[in-house]
């Protein structure tokens, strides 16, 4: 008996030792890792880590985009307790998975997780390749039987190295925040704001790259599901985060109804934008180009002709007086500008509301006498000019401090009216509390849910009231990119949380405004503040800020604005050059830069004046030359390219750099950035013709070579050339 025991024990020990060796081999051996690859990208999933993505490599350059020490590396679920919604979310990832299986099924990898530690939640992730595509396509489903509420799913959850290659200085994050931006050395930046889609995220992709290779991450969703793009940092990793915002439902099966794609590429932000464009142009919002919409009458002709979008404060200074109603000055001022630029003017009325600027929805009648206001807009129209207003939209002002400079002599309190008419329609956060935002001068405003009856009053009816006052174009102000806050109310006509309801509800409101407005007068136009791809068919023109650097929406450390949206969508939707591109009576290099950027990004010229009592003829010489030159190009052979052309990638010009100091906010240090002394852009028409626009923003003449030609441009001079 004792001898038998001696024989068995070594066998057990040997068996245990062999089993231990097998486990180690399975975890560490390349043979244990499951691989999925395309012609450009190789992705490896580790079964020993519950299917975590432990490697994502650009095959041509060998660049690794996954830091395996970071985590999670596959997905992260965000769960909330319905009984305590203000508590922090519970996070579950593949690290918490139990009994996970990872299998290769043809050209797909499938990760199945039946449950998690202490939580009856199942997850299935599917990754696949497709013939002829360099992307890897991914979807996820979650079976939540936990009693907690699923509010968001980060997928795929990648952790990247904090530095690509030998230096972080050439690392860039291409980020579709509004018009578009780059973040240099993004892992070193303390904070990069999350952006919601639809909304401040004008498109559905991000890209992390350096001079050697880049990582591309996008969703291919044509239905407008709510999602959030952002970044996170954990110890030694940098995390490009894509979170799918789910409808807030318990005990249910949720899945992505669209593909998330990932892959690698070579080039800069333009190469990443071209990847996205190859998908985007086939989506419902690109069913017609701007030219086709113009020819069908869907977009009014006056928006695509040279017109100066001039921001003009109706409340302003006149001599030593503050907060004066300047309506009597409008017509003569427009005439002076029209004489100066030899083109019509689209006057953007600001500070026009009944009480004060951005106070709504109680903004009618406009400042002063309603009939006088309507007569002015009518006479502008009769003379070939147009008018426009920024409308407060889905915001309910609760109060505003006295502002004598803007004509508000005492504090304003509108909470009683809000409680009576607006409170029931307010967006509720996940904690069940009303969403109250602050805008100008810390002015508290309740956000109104677009799926409530009051929304139609404060948006649809208000827009048409503006048209009745003779306004030709109404802008949905502060609905940035058409986005609204996520509403978790169970009493509104929508499912609480994410999904497609918000995008479709706002889309329908925009569509109704345009249909009724154009039914009254065909050349009525509707605009949004900043672009949003989902709403292209129900917008006539958008408010762009491609000239902005250092300020919202291009604020933040190491942020550089680039025309990302323009590169993808210029030929599908016109835009005008914002409301804060200032002109001055004195030299101002930043103003020259702004005017040049508006020109080379194909924006209808837009300016604001630096003084209330401003004589257009006194505009400083270089700024005047560039503004006049912009209109000359719009009237000449460049017009078709600037209005209908597709922006194409172009190599940099061999010109000196010039440095600008951009204002970043009251009390904040200026932002120094270098730009080429000559800005340029190249555009291609459907018939294959290309043309290049040039704008000199230097303080001295610049001589350079372009397309085999030697050109000298004076400060503020613009030129258009064709091969």
List the topology elements.
Layout: H1 2-28, E1 34-37, E2 41-46, E3 52-58, E4 63-64, E5 76-80, E6 90-93, E7 97-98, E8 101-105, E9 108-113, E10 115-116, E11 121-129, E12 136-144, E13 149-154, E14 160-161, E15 172-175, E16 181-184, E17 195-197, E18 205-209, E19 214-220, E20 227-234, E21 237-245, E22 252-255, E23 259-265, H2 269-280, H3 290-296, E24 308-313, E25 315-318, E26 321-325, H4 330-341, E27 345-350, H5 370-382, E28 386-391, E29 395-397, E30 399-400, E31 412-413, H6 415-422, E32 436-438, E33 444-447, H7 453-468, E34 473-476, H8 501-520, E35 525-529, E36 541-543, E37 559-561, H9 564-569, E38 575-576, E39 582-583, H10 589-600, E40 606-609, H11 621-635, H12 639-644, E41 646-648, E42 657-662, E43 671-676, E44 678-684, E45 690-696, E46 702-706, E47 709-713, E48 718-721
Parallel strand pairs: 24-27, 24-40, 27-28, 28-34, 34-35, 35-36, 36-38, 39-40
Antiparallel strand pairs: 1-2, 2-3, 3-4, 5-6, 5-13, 7-10, 8-9, 9-11, 11-12, 12-22, 12-23, 13-21, 14-21, 15-16, 15-18, 16-37, 17-20, 18-19, 19-23, 20-21, 25-26, 29-33, 30-31, 32-33, 41-44, 42-43, 44-45, 45-48, 46-47
Helix pairs in contact: 7-8, 10-11
């Amino acid at each position: 008996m004792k001898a038998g025991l001696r024989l068995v024990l070594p066998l057990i020990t040997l068996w245990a030792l062999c089993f231990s060796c097998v486990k180690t081999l399975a975890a560490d051996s390349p043979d244990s890792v499951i691989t999925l690859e395309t012609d450009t990208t190789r992705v490896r999933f580790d079964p020993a880590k519950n299917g975590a993505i432990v490697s994502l490599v650009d095959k041509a350059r060998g660049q690794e985009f996954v830091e395996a020490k970071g985590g999670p590396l596959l997905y992260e679920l965000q769960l909330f307790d319905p009984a305590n919604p203000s508590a922090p979310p519970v996070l579950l990832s593949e690290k918490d998975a139990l009994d996970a299986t990872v299998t290769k099924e043809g050209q797909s990898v499938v990760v199945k997780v039946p449950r998690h530690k202490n939580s009856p939640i199942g997850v299935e992730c599917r990754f696949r390749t497709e013939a002829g595509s360099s992307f890897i396509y991914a979807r996820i489903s979650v079976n939540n039987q936990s009693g907690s509420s699923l509010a968001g799913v980060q997928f795929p959850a990648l952790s990247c190295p904090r530095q690509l290659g030998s230096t972080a200085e050439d690392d860039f994050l291409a980020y579709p925040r509004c018009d578009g931006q780059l973040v240099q050395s993004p892992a070193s930046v303390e904070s990069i704001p999350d952006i919601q889609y639809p909304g401040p995220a004008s498109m559905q992709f991000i890209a992390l790259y350096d001079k050697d290779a880049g990582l591309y991450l996008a969703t291919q969703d044509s239905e407008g599901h709510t999602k959030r793009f952002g970044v996170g940092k954990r110890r030694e990793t940098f995390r490009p985060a894509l979170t799918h915002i789910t409808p807030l439902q318990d005990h249910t099966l949720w899945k992505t109804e669209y593909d998330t794609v990932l892959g690698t590429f070579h080039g800069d932000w333009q190469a990443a934008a071209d990847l996205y464009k190859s998908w985007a142009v086939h989506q419902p919002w690109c069913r017609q180009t701007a030219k086709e919409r113009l020819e069908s009458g869907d977009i009014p002709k006056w928006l695509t002709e040279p017109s100066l979008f001039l921001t003009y404060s109706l409340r302003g200074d006149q001599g030593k007086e503050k907060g004066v109603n300047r309506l009597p000055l409008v017509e003569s001022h427009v005439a002076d500008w029209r004489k100066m630029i030899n083109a019509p003017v689209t006057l953007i009325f600001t500070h026009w509301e009944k009480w004060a600027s951005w106070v709504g929805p109680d903004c009618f009648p406009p400042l002063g006498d309603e009939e006088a206001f309507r007569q002015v807009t009518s006479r502008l129209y009769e003379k070939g000019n147009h008018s426009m207003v920024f409308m407060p939209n889905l915001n309910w002002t609760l109060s505003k401090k006295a502002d004598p400079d803007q004509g508000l002599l005492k504090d304003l309190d509108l909470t009683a009216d809000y409680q009576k008419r607006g409170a029931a329609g307010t967006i509720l956060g996940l904690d069940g509390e009303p969403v109250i935002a602050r805008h100008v001068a810390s002015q508290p405003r309740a956000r109104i849910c677009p799926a409530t009856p009051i929304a139609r009053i404060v948006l649809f009816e208000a827009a048409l009231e503006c048209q009745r006052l003779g306004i030709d174009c109404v802008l949905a102000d502060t609905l940035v990119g058409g986005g609204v806050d996520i509403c978790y109310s169970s009493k509104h006509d929508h499912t609480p949380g994410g999904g497609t309801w918000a995008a479709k509800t706002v889309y329908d409101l925009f569509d109704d405004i345009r249909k009724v407005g154009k039914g009254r007068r065909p050349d009525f136009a509707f605009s949004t503040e900043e672009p949003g791809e989902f709403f292209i068919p129900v917008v006539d023109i958008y408010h762009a800020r491609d000239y902005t650097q250092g300020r919202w929406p291009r604020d933040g450390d190491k942020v550089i604005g680039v025309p990302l949206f323009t590169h993808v969508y210029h030929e599908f939707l016109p835009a005008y050059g914002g409301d804060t591109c200032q002109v001055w009576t004195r030299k101002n290099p930043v103003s020259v830069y702004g005017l040049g950027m508006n020109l080379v990004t194909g924006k209808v010229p837009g300016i604001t004046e630096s003084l209330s009592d401003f004589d257009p003829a006194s505009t400083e010489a270089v700024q005047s030359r560039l503004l006049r030159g912009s209109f000359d190009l719009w009237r000449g052979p460049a017009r078709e390219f600037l209005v209908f052309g597709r922006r194409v990638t172009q190599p940099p010009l061999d010109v000196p750099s010039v440095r600008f100091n951009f204002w970043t906010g009251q009390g904040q240090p200026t932002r120094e950035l270098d730009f080429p002394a000559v800005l340029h852009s190249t555009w291609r028409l459907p018939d294959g013709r290309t043309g290049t626009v040039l704008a000199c923003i230097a303080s001295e003449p610049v001589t350079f070579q372009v397309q085999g030609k030697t050109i000298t441009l004076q400060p503020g001079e613009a030129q258009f050339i064709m091969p």
